[in-house]
């Protein structure tokens, strides 16, 4: 049998030129990996540790534009072209970070024509690592101060401990459940259809009389002063009429306070006294209403003491009259009022165009 060639001898044989592709001759023979991505990454981190440090830890209370710094990361200030005169400017140490930050804040405040007077505690919390002892520690105080700097705050008067301006806006209202359905209601063109009429339509209440409508149109009766609930319906099927938004606001005293500001005959002391009196009356009314509701809820419950325990029983109507045909219930205390079938008002495919109008 003829001798076989060893694998080492075959591997040492010079390959033919026709066995290689064209790209093999153009490929660079180097065992070092490509450094293009690594070099870009190193340049990025060098920029972050150099001029980019201003954007990782920006100046508090001022804008941080790219054009506000030069290539070396120094803040461009007013009068930069003027050279520093005197030995005191040349002898300033670069390690004095507190003075440098304060000067930067002062320059930014002068540029934007605002006054930024931050306490030293805030400056200490916002300073980067080499000059901040608490840098990197899980502290909530710097985070809270940063959030408070972005969220509008209500300042209190140090003497009266009351807010100088109202904390919440006057138009914050929740959407009433009676306004969920879509209603087609015919209205006369010779008469204005206002919010009061819309609330009565949503509630299924009859329209107001001509005298009441004329009083509203003439301004003799303002809606924000109407806080009395109007109840309609038969006994057992009663419901309250939906009032307009001006009557449902939780703080009508603010409207009265603004109207007092327009009255030139009142002094500021009298306006504040009237406003304080309205607040006290409103607080008393809310307290009485809350106590009344608690008494009504307690009257519907039966408490049974069994030694160590106390059972609270509430009566409900589980009959056809209480739950209704659709399971929703007809009364307020019915079981199906909350756990019935969902409403079909906004369901897809429901025809809401009226075919007749009952006058």
From TrEMBL:
One of its GO terms (molecular function) is structural constituent of ribosome. Residues 78-100, 259-285, 318-359 are annotated as: Disordered. Residues 324-334 have a biased composition (Gly residues). It holds the Pfam family Bot1p. It comes from the Eukaryota. PANTHER family: 37S RIBOSOMAL PROTEIN S35, MITOCHONDRIAL, SMALL RIBOSOMAL SUBUNIT PROTEIN MS45. This is Uncharacterized protein. It comes from Fonsecaea erecta. The lineage of its organism: Eukaryota, Fungi, Dikarya, Ascomycota, Pezizomycotina.
